[in-house]
Amino acid sequence: MSDFLIAPSILSADFARLGEEVDNVIASGCDVVHFDVMDNHYVPNLTIGPLVCDALRKHGVTADIDVHLMVEPVDRIIPDFAKAGASYITFHPEASGHIDRSLSLIRDSGCKSGLVFNPATPLDYLKYVMDKVDVVLLMSVNPGFGGQSFIPATLEKLREARKIIDDSGYDIRLEIDGGVKVDNIAEIARAGADMFVSGSGIFGGANDADPNTYDTIVQQMRDELAKV
């Protein structure tokens, strides 16, 4: 897959104007809405649930919504997000007692499925479920909070994941989440990523109600990706 997708993480958006924020970043050229779900159990933070996902759909958001479940257990909430309009649903293998079953549940609910790997989580889980995975998401920070710095060791892990995907012959996206900014997105793409989550990298300097700021940042990211 050579086409690059930019996925702004709404964790860094202004929640008082969430619908408007999402409209603005999509209008600026972003492709996918990244939706971080934290339960104050699997990770030490509490964010948003299916009602917010449903509200964005009712607001008129038509872009794909990429739901990243940082919750434990995962199976109970998968159908709720599917019903609320999720396009992708990804989860951490450590948070599921039955990874194959959880992946199948996501697909049976009508969504694309994926696994998320923390910085120190090995990719071994992948080899047994390649036929059930549509996206592999590598965390380049430890999950739970926005605004963290990219962990450099993730670049080698990206290269490893890219080889596994390419060798498999399956059509699987390789997504990266954490510390992705204009100044490192090209290097991350060269390591194999084709879907880029960026929260503070996009929203961080633009919560001043000026949607043109998003245009500038996203265009700079596109310009960097064009060099790859």
Please tell me about this protein's structure.
The protein is of the alpha/beta class and 228 residues long. The protein has one domain (5-225): Aldolase class I (TIM Barrel). The chain contains 8 helices and 8 strands, in the order E-H-E-H-E-H-E-H-E-E-H-E-H-E-H-H. It has helices at residues 18-27, 50-59, 78-84, 99-108, 154-168, 185-190, 200-203, 211-225, and strands spanning 5-8, 32-38, 64-70, 88-91, 112-117, 135-139, 173-177, 195-198. An 8-stranded parallel β-sheet has the order 1-8-7-6-5-4-3-2. Helix 1 crosses helix 8 and helix 2 packs parallel to helix 3. It is globular, with a radius of gyration of 16 Å. The two termini are 13 Å apart. The relative contact order is 0.17.
Task: Give the arrangement of secondary structure elements.
Blueprint: E1 5-8, H1 18-27, E2 32-38, H2 50-59, E3 64-70, H3 78-84, E4 88-91, H4 99-108, E5 112-117, E6 135-139, H5 154-168, E7 173-177, H6 185-190, E8 195-198, H7 200-203, H8 211-225
Parallel strand pairs: 1-8, 2-3, 3-4, 4-5, 5-6, 6-7, 7-8
